[in-house]
Every structure is written in structure tokens, then in C-alpha cells.
Amino acid sequence: MTANRVRVAVLHGGRSGEHEVSLKSGRSVIDHLDPERYEVVPVLITPDGRWASGDGEPGGLAHAIGLFEGVDVVFPALHGEFGEDGTVQSLLEMVGVPYVGNGVFAGAAGMDKEFTKKLLVADGLEVADGVVLRAGDETLTPEEIDRLGFPMFVKPARTGSSLGISKVDAEEELAQAVKLAKDFDTKVLVEAAVPGREVDVAVLEHPDGRLEAGPALEIRIDGGHAFFDYEAKYADTTTIFDIPARLDDELREAVEWQALAAFRSLGCRGLLRVDFFLRDGRTPVVNEVNTFPGFTAASQFPQMWAAAGVEFPELLDILVTTALARR
């Protein structure tokens, strides 16, 4: 620690298709860490995987390891593969530097939607019915199509920010949707649509190990979007987040309990956002989890905690302090 301040390296950018989103999250974290408590070291990861701090020249892995010298804790504000999926976390584990958020296993399992679903189902949580298409699989069998029905959703198994996702309303649209998804990942998940409201719950771990679920958020999108896609998330100002979501006590307790259960099922630490569909408005169905959700002040996770009275700088402080408590 420097002059009683904690030295925090904020990683942002990265090699994934979510590079630009990560730049925004990283900048927001840098801008909102309390300068009286933290000395911030911005670390940029370029789209080709080189690492740089400040005005220094970017370099490879050996250079990256050197950037952690004198750092007390790392804040990986990274989204998608090569950042949120356990890869950077494994490097930090080997170097022995504390870091904010989920570890290697939770990052990998939470990034791969196939294994997320398997782990959650094993612990009794409901997920949408689905089929995994691997390398060489180009479409569903007639039996699988009949089982899932239309509409269905086709998505890359290991991306975020709704990249490569299509809503398919008829069989003749399926091949193109699979092709689009495979532009992002060799493994594709095809899921039955779950009609109902879309609700998110944020889970936060405190430094003493206590877990807390924040106020649920309901997403309402404009009729011009078939679902909560990339544009609706990041570009459309008509997208509305209702916080807290209008849920009765029984339903609110159910989604909070299931969000906490998902956190434990995946072996998470620090934080998790769990996205639900409410089948027929009543039955929670886990859609996806996000082990490092968007982290601008306007993003869902910080907004949910702000509604609970935890403003963004305090939220960052809790995350950093929790990471240091595990040291």
C-alpha cells in the first residue's frame, strides 16, 4: 500500500468482442474509486492481447506480470472470453495477486452457458429447455425442433452482451441463426423461448462473507426489439429498468433465494447477476448468469445497488475490501 492508500490495478479492454463495453466499465470504475482511499493503476489490454499501463508501450505476458509489481489488488473490469471466463483469473492466481470478483472455476462455468445450466439444474433450479450444437453440428433434428417449438433462441454458448443471438420464429430461419452464432463461438446453444417478464437480481458478497441479494430489476424494451439485444442494452434510450421490480413478496423472495442459490452452485465470490424469465408471470426460470456484469454507473448491477442505498463508490469499496479480505 502507498501512503496508506490501496494500490488498485484496473484491467479493461481485452480480446473479446466486448472490448468496447469493457473500456466503458473500466473507465467508470477508475473514475469512481475514492482517490483518498485508492491509488488507481489503469491497465489496458488491447484487442490483440497486449498489456499496457499509462503511456507505456504495450507488451506480452511477461510484461503483463511486471505490471502487477507493487499492486495490492486487481480489479478485472473485463467482459467475455479472455477476461471474464477464468483466463485472466488463472494468471492472477499464479502471480499471487488478490483480485475482485469470481475465481477461475466460477468464471469458466458462468461463461459457458451449457455448463451453467447443468450446474444449476443439478441444484434444483429451473432453466429453459435447450440443445447444444457442437463443431460439425449445423442444425437440430426434427425431434429436437418439435420438442423446443417456436419461437426459439439461438445463441453462442460462450459470449455476453447478447452478441450473436437470434430469435427464430420459423424453421427456415434456423440455419442462418446458427451460422451467425457460430461466427462468435464453435459451440451454440438453442433454447426454447420462455414467455414471461424478464427480471434480474444482483448478488453481492460482503467482506465478512455475508451474501446479499439486491432489489430485483425488471427490463422493459421498446416494441422495435424482439428481445433484449445488444442495441437495446447499450444504444436504445427507450429501454426501461424498473427498480425495484413490481413483484409480490412471495415472488420477490423466490427470485432472491434462487439468485443466492445460483451464486453458491457456481462457487462464486464477490458478485453475480442472475437473469430470470418469469414463466407465465409466476415461475422463475434462470436465463443466464453474468459473473462480471456491465459496470458503468448506468449499468444494471450498479443501478440495483444504488436503489438499495449503496452508491457506486461504496459498491466498488465493498468489492475491493472483500477481495482483500480473502488474501
- Secondary structure tally: strands: 14
Quickly count the domains. 3
Given helix and strand content, the structural type is: alpha+beta
Termini gap: 14 Å
Order of helices and strands: EHEEHEHHHEHEEHEEEEHEHEEHH
Q: Under CATH, the topology of the largest domain is which?
A: D-amino Acid Aminotransferase, Chain A, domain 1
CATH architecture of the largest domain: 2-Layer Sandwich
Number of helices: 11
**CA radius of gyration:** 20 Å
Percent helix among the residues?
25-40%
Under CATH at level 1, the class of the largest domain stands as Alpha Beta
Sheet with the most strands, sense and barrel status: 6 strands, antiparallel
User: Which runs of at least 5 residues are low in confidence (pLDDT < 50)?
Assistant: none
Strand content: 15-25%
Query: What average pLDDT do the residues reach?
Result: 93
Shape: globular
CATH superfamily of the largest domain: ATP-grasp fold, B domain
Catalytic activity: 2 D-alanine + ATP = D-alanyl-D-alanine + ADP + phosphate + H(+)
Active site: 18, 161, 299
Binding site for Mg(2+) 1: 275, 288
Enzyme class: ligase
What are the salient characteristics of this protein?
3 domains, alpha+beta, 11 helices, globular, 14 strands, D-amino Acid Aminotransferase, Chain A, domain 1, four-stranded mixed sheet, Dna Ligase, domain 1, 327 residues, Rossmann fold
